[in-house]
Write a structure and sequence with these properties.
- The structure is a single chain.
- The protein contains 7 helices and 11 strands.
- The longest helix has 12 residues.
Length: about 260
């Protein structure tokens, strides 16, 4: 497949590498934009606030299948839209999906080590299903559809900025140095040494005690059939990816999230 990747940050560069290894023909573009008319799919992996500018600099984007991998941190989608993905569709008029925005790019190189294929959520147009699911699998993920494009705002908001502490001063998703996009973007997450974190941060991220952990089997699934990550999960700690009876899996939460309403 011919793929145009827009964004030279960790997500764009990482996915481009994975797709090239899978045999795809990848064109890599940065903030300067370029020609995408020959692409069968376009990945948009730029800072959330740079979506409009990035689209303006792309030639031949009309009608293309676009995978929006952006997130919003401290910024809002373009005026009149509930999500970046819906804005993208309004500009391209082609099949549009939201995907690859909630998985840490720093783990791309370890996907092959997982005992069970990790899941990756996507939402959007049925017309893009074949493309997005193939590219998920070729990157090393099992795709899980959670709804139409109206779910994009909920998916963009799945990563809570208060849950991740990141070092400052590195480049943003497009290779620049805009620190507004650094705080909690999965694209830039790198584990920190405990000595570098505040006491409050250490308490928030402390691993639960063994008594709080519950092993679940390989290829475990929730009641609705969504695949869970392998390994122990905390059943009573805040923010854990629990599969306990009282906690729904992320895919279930997203599917049942209310649809945001555009406008003031």
């Amino acid at each position: 497949m011919k793929i145009a990747v827009v964004g030279r940050g960790n997500v764009g560069r990482g996915l481009a590498d994975l797709w090239e290894r899978a045999g795809h023909e990848v064109t890599r573009l940065g903030r300067e934009g370029g020609e995408v008319s020959g692409a069968e799919a376009v990945l948009l992996a730029v800072p959330g606030s740079a979506v409009a500018d990035a689209l303006e600099k792309l030639r031949g984007i009309e009608g293309k299948t676009v995978i929006d991998a952006t997130n919003l941190y401290g910024v809002h989608p373009p005026e009149g839209f509930a999500s970046n993905a819906e804005f993208v569709k309004s500009k391209t008029s082609g099949p549009t999906v939201k995907s690859f925005n909630i998985n840490f790019a720093s783990l791309y190189g370890r996907l092959g080590e997982a005992r069970a294929t990790p899941s990756n959520l996507w939402c959007g147009d049925d017309g893009a299903r074949e493309v997005v699911e193939r590219l998920n699998r070729d990157a090393g993920y099992e795709p899980v559809r959670v709804g139409g494009l109206e779910k994009a705002a909920a998916q963009e908001g799945m990563v809570d900025p208060s849950c991740v502490d990141l070092p400052q001063g590195e480049g943003d998703g497009s290779g620049g140095d805009d620190r507004r996009h650094r705080r909690a973007d999965p694209a830039h997450h790198q584990p920190q040494e405990r000595g570098d974190r505040s006491a409050a941060s250490v308490e928030r991220h402390e691993r639960p005690e063994p008594s709080q952990m519950k092993e679940h089997p390989l290829d475990a699934r929730c009641a609705d059939g969504h695949r869970q990550e392998d390994g122990p999960v905390a059943t009573n700690s805040p923010g854990s990816r629990a599969i306990a009876q009282e906690t729904a899996c992320p895919a279930c939460v997203l599917q049942k999230a209310p649809v945001p309403v555009s406008g003031p």
